[in-house]
Amino acid sequence: MIHLDRGSSVPVRQQLYARIRELIVQGNLGADTQLPSSRTLAVELGVSRNTIVAAFDQLIAEGYLDARVGAGSFVAVQLPDALGKSVRAAPHIVRATGRREVRLAGETLTRRNTSPPSLPVRPRAFALGVPSVDEFPYAAWGKIVAKRWGRSAASLSAYGAPGGLPALREVIADYLVTSRGVRCNPSQVFVVGGSQQGLNLAVRVLLDRDDPAWMENPGYHGAREAFDAVGARIVPVPVDADGLDVQAGEAAERHPRLIYATPSHQFPLGMTMTMRRRAQLLACASNADAWVFEDDYDSEFRYSGQPLPALQGLDDEDRVIYAGTFSKGLLPSLRLGYLVVPPDLVEPFQRAHTVSGLDGSLLDQTVVADFIREGHFARHIRRMRRLYATRRELLVESLRRHLGGMIDVGLPASGTHLVVYLRDGVSDVDACRVAAANGVVMTPLSSAYIGTGQSGLLLGYASVRGPLIERGVRQVASALRSLVPASPVRPLDHRVAG
């Protein structure tokens, strides 16, 4: 990190002093960092040892270095500022091990551990957000891949178009208009690497540090991480049976810059936001001049009642950014999602999408476009809806038989997971830990809260076959009984959500 200009009129000793001082003041050499010995540094820089010693002596005299007998020279913990006062040294950027640390937004992002653990390759009860990949129509998919690759391998090996493959953007726009009531044209559609990447892109475009952002509480951990990454001020807003409590949100912060919501299937509790509440949310956004990010995950999998149109389709002021994904409906490994942005945001999102390098595989995008256009996607979703409904019933029945006196079950009208509320003060974190030791993957409900939250378990069932459901519930029952040896027997209470 030290460059010496041999042709400069400034003496080498003074250059060395100034450069080390600069590294210390800027934080590149953090407090208590040990510097190389004068002998080592002289060899590396090609100068005399006396030059190094003279520079070190000056830095020690001014309070930038501490000399420790028998140990060497270290960056002082307290540094002098321009007025001669003592100030705290900058935090380390490089530790003594040489491992580089992240700073600022990266530091905020990496110190939070809210993400669920890595999921196993093979399906296990009760992993969250994993579709039934073993039921995927691989034969139809493979035929499309072979056809497309055989005809245009060279063109599919190039860089992708900004915003995504035009053919896929057209297909997505047509699908959303007919199936979700979204109002858009292909130019408003942006193909991204999953809904999380879409959220990250939107947050980077729309939020500055300290901008207030509403998010549901409990809510999606990925939204919290996206807001943290840009330094936004998160405003946790409670949910009730009608969805996001707009009135409570306005009481906490009347002028949010961005509102994150999951109106079709609230994560994690599962209720559907009512039409009345949707109207309140849009009115609030209008009054606050705010943007709304609508995460429409799992909207294809509804088992009862009439599905409500997307919030975006009700928006008369073009304030809603709509997000969806193919990870749940097709294959997680595709990592393909999409955003629909208001007309006024098309240009800034286009620029951000380009500089962020979000272009995915042209082959994957082409195959997905053909897969949807040829009707395979609609047929697959219908099959999965029936299959998931069956697995959902099996899970509820198994919970009733093995855990009826210990839990209450939330039964959302859509989605691919159940919420199991724990009675008798049982810790959901402890329950997940004990179950994991027996090979069962669960997610604690309390981890979705900002602050203190309700104890419960999130059980994904989409990827779990019938026999594994029964076996998994027995393991959950064993885990809970080990935490509450004597639980009273009470009937199972079903909490029906939207």
Tell me what you see in this structure.
A hairpin with a 5-residue loop joins strand 3 and strand 4. Helix content is 40%, strand content 15%. By secondary structure, it is of the alpha/beta class.
CATH class of the largest domain: Alpha Beta
* Alpha-carbon distance between the two ends: 60 Å
- Mean pLDDT over the full residue set: 85
| Tally of distinct domains | 3
User: Could you say what the CATH architecture of the largest domain is?
Assistant: 3-Layer(aba) Sandwich
Percentage of residues in strands:
15-25%
CATH topology tier name of the largest domain:
Aspartate Aminotransferase, domain 2
SS content category:
alpha/beta
CATH H level, superfamily name of the largest domain: Type I PLP-dependent aspartate aminotransferase-like (Major domain)
Strand order of the largest sheet: 5-12-11-10-9-6-7-8
Principal-axes geometry comes out as: globular
Q: Classify the helix fraction into a percent range.
A: 25-40%
Strand element count: 17
Q: Biggest β-sheet: count, sense, barrel?
A: 8 strands, mixed
Instruction: Report the C-alpha radius of gyration, rounded.
Output: 28 Å
Low-confidence stretches: 82-121, 487-492
Helix count? Answer: 16
Features:
Aspartate Aminotransferase, domain 2; eight-stranded mixed β-sheet; alpha/beta; Arc Repressor Mutant, subunit A; Aspartate Aminotransferase, domain 1; 498 residues; 40% helix; 16 helices
Describe, in short, the structure shown.
The protein is α/β, with parallel strands linked by helices and 498 residues long. The chain contains 16 helices and 17 strands. It has helices at 12-25, 38-45, 49-62, 104-111, 138-152, 166-179, 195-206, 221-229, 246-252, 275-288, 311-314, 346-355, 362-373, 376-403, 428-437, 466-483; strands at 65-68, 72-75, 78-80, 86-88, 189-192, 212-217, 233-240, 243-244, 258-261, 291-295, 320-325, 337-340, 407-412, 417-422, 443-444, 456-460, 493-497.
